[in-house]
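Teaching soon. Invent one.


***
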Amino acid sequence: MAPMASMAHQAPLTHSVAFLARRAATALAAVLVLGAAAAPAAYAGSPSMAPKKLPDGLYGSKDPQYDGVWRQSLALLAQDTVGVRPAASAVNWLAGQQCADGSFTAFRAEPGKPCDAKTLRDTNPTAAAVQALAALGGHGDTVKKAVGWLKSVQNEDGGWSSMAGSASDANSTSVVIGALAAAGEKPQSVTSKKGGRTPFDGLLTFQLGCAAKGDERGAFAFQLKGAAPNADATAAAATGARGKGFVVEPAGKGADTPVKPLSCKDGDKEGKGDKKAGADDPAQAAEAGDGYLVAQLDKNGQHLLSAMPGAEKQPDVGNTADAVVALAAGAHGTAAAKPLKWLEKNSADWAKQSGPAAYAQLVLVAHATGTDPRSFGGTDLVAALNATGPEPAATAKKDTEDADDAKDGGGLGVVGVIGIGLAIGAGIGFLLSSRKKSRL
């Protein structure tokens, strides 16, 4: 899934999807702290940093400055999940974005130039790259170095922030848990140097329990400060608490476990009991998170709402997709079916506008729910995703004719400016929603 709790922090995709707003929030935070004159050039609105020509192998046709590694990672991971072998140029581009210390940033226009103190290393693209490269295989050293860097910036509470040294947040902690699991690590065994806390210890601190209002119980906050329920953070955490990453294997035909919302003890109806729900049990915490998500989905017509300013009553497609994956991770077939149906009917325009990471997120939704990604509400998601990047090296099944419009979907279109002129992309509610302290 930013050092400022009041700013937005969510990707497609992720999981989902979504990343541009995190980069903008991080960059703006750096400016506020250091002053515009001291801000790294890449985030000070310098036009020289925007690539004149997109690199070979990169997915999408739009500026990758804030989401290049993220969208590439999700695209490669989604293709691998459905049996598509990506082009070597696409995989090599991603691996080549790594800094010498193992970290990744949002995008390096000059990967041959060493990362320095001004390079804004970020746990989110690092964790996304780990999940993609671990799945593809053949990049063991790259994955090992990235995991080593992630471990080195673990916070004392056991969690992670987007930027090292900042307060932990639920989204970053969740995506790192997914990376650790994908790399063959046991997240519960990765402990902080001070305090010896695990990633699950850190993640569960963000959950609202019996001391919260009745309709907020079980939700996760993005960060502790403010502790407002956040639907995207809840979806990410409900998946992460189960030790899962972007790829969630389908539970199997007929699997349908009832959702169990947080139930406070009798006599504690006033919310005066424990502040945390299942604080020592990640599985119980995930169930409570799922209960909150189902309540919100039911309330809003089987979709979650955008947290973008002025758009609070508009559907958030990416956030809804994250929620479906979270429910599928808990084998909640019936609970996932309704929002899945909503996505099949309503996600096509969003994906076309948003680009490769959005298509990838929907492919991963289809995979988690056992749905055919080549016939998702009338859209061949695999063909559409393939059309946004270099021609795959091989496919497990011949795709239908590529949609021409998909070639124009390159990450996130520019629709606005934050603070110092940072661009926020079109169709990225999933990017922004998790970073707002919204009460979805």
